[in-house]
Design a protein that fits this description.
This protein is of the alpha/beta class. The chain folds into 2 domains: about 260 residues, TIM Barrel, CATH 3.20.20; about 70 residues, Type Iii Antifreeze Protein Isoform Hplc 12 (Alpha-Beta Complex). The protein is built from 13 helices and 11 strands. Strands 1, 2, 3, 4, 5, 6, 7, 8 and 9 form a 9-stranded parallel beta sheet that branches. The longest helix has 18 residues. The radius of gyration is 31 Å and the shape is elongated.
């Protein structure tokens, strides 16, 4: 898929668009990051997404761990520092995604990150739930006039109204994602109901950014027509990192991609019930039933309804036409192992 193709899919409100979020699941390893690009491309996603952290301009030593998980980072600042890649390395990751024919996205967590990603040639933006009120980041991406995907994990309706007002005022090309910023998100808090509410309220492309670590929410979102979906990816649920518990495995993501594509194909090929019935007439003849005897009967027997039953195939006399036989005399000894014919009676 060329760059223009994945952007066209992103801008379509009908074509499924699956984003494989790598986030910090590379755990600071550039090699692991590239391995995720390959694995997600093989799984068939439309885009991979990273997070671009520059600790010095994003965080401080006062930044607290959401969950103290690290064995090697004394502070969250230290963790963000370890998650950094150089500009050259980011460019290599984008080039890798380009070569694999999928989109490259990375959420910027500072104005400096916006500038870095702009320099390496990103073609669309993803704004994380925590930065919808960060005007430095928001204003920077608005100026680019590129597509923007906005997560709403911590936003109220009032805050979303203000965000959308700003997007519309700048004639932005944007999508909104229902999201709940819990890691993992309990199924009770996924909020699939918000998708239709958001669509009705803002009339833009709406999707689901899911952190449940389960496949069902993403499948349900696609089935309900909200086929812009972002899920976190992990090679294995036993891997290390704060987001692994909120992630899907590569095989689960492959199942999601296949489901979205198959559902789209089905929707693009509606069935005319009458035409299909005509097409299946030969099959119907094999599967349906016709009149036969419940037991062997001799010539001269006058048929009653109790003598009749239905047996395959459906190429003989139908049940609705049994009056043509009832009350008539058999012309010859007639076995139960064949269908009755009009010529069997007088």
């Amino acid at each position: 898929m060329s760059n223009s193709q994945w952007l066209m899919k992103l801008n379509s409100d009908k074509a499924p668009f699956i984003i494989g979020e790598i986030g910090q699941n590379h755990d600071g390893s550039l090699g692991m990051a590239h391995a995720y690009v390959n694995a997600l491309a093989d799984a068939g996603v439309d885009a991979v997404k990273f997070q671009t952290h520059i600790a010095a301009v994003e965080s401080t030593q006062d930044d607290q761990f959401r969950v103290k998980f690290s064995y090697q980072d004394e502070t969250r600042y230290d963790y963000w520092k370890r998650m950094e890649f150089t500009e050259v390395q980011w460019a290599e990751l984008k080039n890798h995604a380009d070569q694999r024919g999928i989109g490259f996205l990375s959420t910027p967590f500072s104005g400096a990150a916006v500038q870095l990603l702009s320099r390496i040639g990103v073609e669309a933006w993803k704004i994380g739930s925590g930065d919808t009120t960060s005007q430095e980041i928001f204003n920077s991406v608005l100026k680019s006039q590129m597509p923007i995907i906005v997560s709403s994990g911590m936003s109220s309706w009032k805050e979303l109204d203000e965000i959308v007002e700003q997007l519309n005022a700048n004639s932005a090309n944007y999508s909104l994602m229902q999201c709940t910023s819990k890691y993992p998100t309990p199924l009770t808090d996924v909020g699939l109901n918000v998708l239709s509410e958001m669509k009705a309220r803002y009339d833009c492309r709406v999707g689901l950014s899911d952190h449940s670590g389960q496949l069902a929410p993403a499948l349900a979102s696609v089935a309900r027509g909200f086929s812009l979906v972002e899920i976190h990816a992990t090679f294995d649920k036993a891997m290390f990192g704060p987001d692994v518990v909120a992630s899907l495995t590569i095989n689960e993501i492959k199942d999601l991609v296949n489901f979205a594509r198959d559902l789209t194909f089905i929707d693009e090929n509606p069935v005319d019930k009458d035409e299909m019935a005509t097409e299946l007439q030969q099959q119907k003849s094999l599967f349906c039933r016709s009149l036969a005897l419940v037991k062997d009967l001799p010539a001269g027997h006058v048929l009653t309804e109790d003598d009749l039953t239905l047996k395959k195939p459906g190429s003989g006399i139908k049940w609705k036409d049994r009056h043509k036989l009832i009350g008539h005399r058999l012309l010859q000894d007639t076995p139960m192992k064949r269908l009755l014919k009009a010529g069997d009676v007088a």
